[in-house]
Design goal:
355 residues, alpha/beta, Peroxisomal Thiolase, Chain A, domain 1, 2 domains, 10-stranded mixed sheet, two-stranded antiparallel sheet, 14 strands, 37% helix
Amino acid sequence: MKYDRVFIDAIGYELAPEVVTSRELEERLAPLYKSLGIQPGQLELMTGITERRFWEPGFVVSGGAARAAEHALAMSPVTSMDLGALVYTGVCRDGFEPATACHVAAKLRTGGHPLSPTAHIYDISNACLGMLNGMIDIANRIELGQIRAGMVVSCESAREIVDTMIDRMLGERDMELFKTSIATMTGGSAAAAIILTDGSFDHAESHRPHRLLGGVSLSAPEWHDLCRWGIEAAPESGTYRQFMSTDAPEVLAHGVALGQDTWRAFLDELGWAKGVERTVCHQVGRSHRETILRSIGVPEENDFVAYEYLGNTGTVALPIAAALAGEREFLEAGHRVGFLGIGSGLNCTMLGVEW
C-alpha cells in the first residue's frame, strides 16, 4: 500500500502516574521465587525493563485516551470539528458495548472538543498492532478523499492483569505458569493519540507534519495460540477470571521469521533499496529488540528504545516511542523512518514515514 497525500500531523500521549519497578514486582513474588529456587533480579535481566507505569485503581481507559487526544489537538491546527473519524484501537476497552470510541468522543465534548455529528466513531482491535491498523484505516479514508483528517486513539492498563497473574502465581507456585507469565510482568500503562491529515491545514513554521508513505502487512494466523489474554473459568471458585499466557520463545522465533518476510516486502514496496535511517519498533523487551534488529540488519543505534522505563504498553508503545524520539531529535526532518510492529495473531505491519 502507498499513500500520496497522508500526513502524521501530531502524536499526543499521556503516561500513567504510578511508577512500578521490576524490583517491586519481584518483592511481591518473593514466596514464589523461594519455592522455585529463582534468584531475584531475573525479571529485569530477562526483559531489560527497569520500571513501568500503572493507572490508579479503577481508572477508565477512555479517560486516558481522551487526555492523549486533547494533547494531540493542542499540538495541531486541526480542531475536533475537523475530524472525519475517531477510531479507538486499544486491547483494553471500557466495555463490550458501545464502542469505547464513543466514550472518548463524549469526554472530548465535555472538555470543549465536540466532534461533528457526521464523524465516524468506532473501534478497531488487533492486539498490539491496533494503532497501526487504525492509522491505515484513517489513511485509506484520507487517500480516497472521504475525510480531510482523522484521529486514532488508544489507552492500555496493565495493573489488573499483572495483579491477577501475581496472585495466581503465588497460589499455584508452578514453574510452567511462571514461564508463561513473564511477558505479563512487562506490561505498562499509557495512552496515545495520532492525528492524520491530507496536508491541507495551515501550520506554523515550527510545526512540520510527517508524510506517511505507505507500508506492508503480513500475517501468520497458524500461531494465534502463542500469546493470549482473555477470560477463563476459575475451577476453585466457580467464577471467571482474567488470564494471560505467552509462549515467549515461540513468539520470538515465529515473530522474527514473519518480521523478516515483512521487512523485505516493506523495503520493496516503498522502493527503499538503501533501507531506513531510523526505526521505531513495538516496545517488547531487550531480547525481542536485539533479535529482530539483528535479523533485518538494522544497527541498534538507529533504533529508539522506550521499554526500559515504560515497559510494554501494548498498542500505544510504538506511537509513544515515536513521539519521544521526535521530542529528543532522534528523528530528524527528512529521515526515512520505519514503524515496525509485530503483534499476537501473529500479525506484522511496517509503515514508512518521511519525517
